Amino acid sequence: MRDSGRSSFIGCEAQEEYRHGFYAEGCSLLSFSACCADSNGQQDSTYSGYYLKNTQLSTLMGCNSTSFHSPSWQYTGATFENCSGITSVLSVNNQLSRSNYVLKGSNAKLSLTINGEAVR
User: Fold this and answer.
1) CA 45 and chain centroid, separation
2) What is the tens place of the pLDDT at every residue in 48-64?
């Protein structure tokens, strides 16, 4: 989605999508809760389960990002690019890059907990 705001996604699943599982650009006040991004990135394995770009004041709570394919199609669990005010509690496993998350550009006020560990 692009240029959207004040939206909630509860118990949604993005499975075997061609690119990113969930993609938000230029958004604010989004809430993802208990969502699952599974085995996305079929196009060329450079895509994330969750990709937030230029997004602010949003949450990903109790969500997971996984891949049942071996090797994984999904490059990483979550990518945050030029975001601010993001709170994320994710469970991530089996990513192609062996990286649970990627930070691009300038990110501010991020609170990231991945697999029970506060990483930022």
Assistant:
1) 15
2) 999 999 999 999 999 99
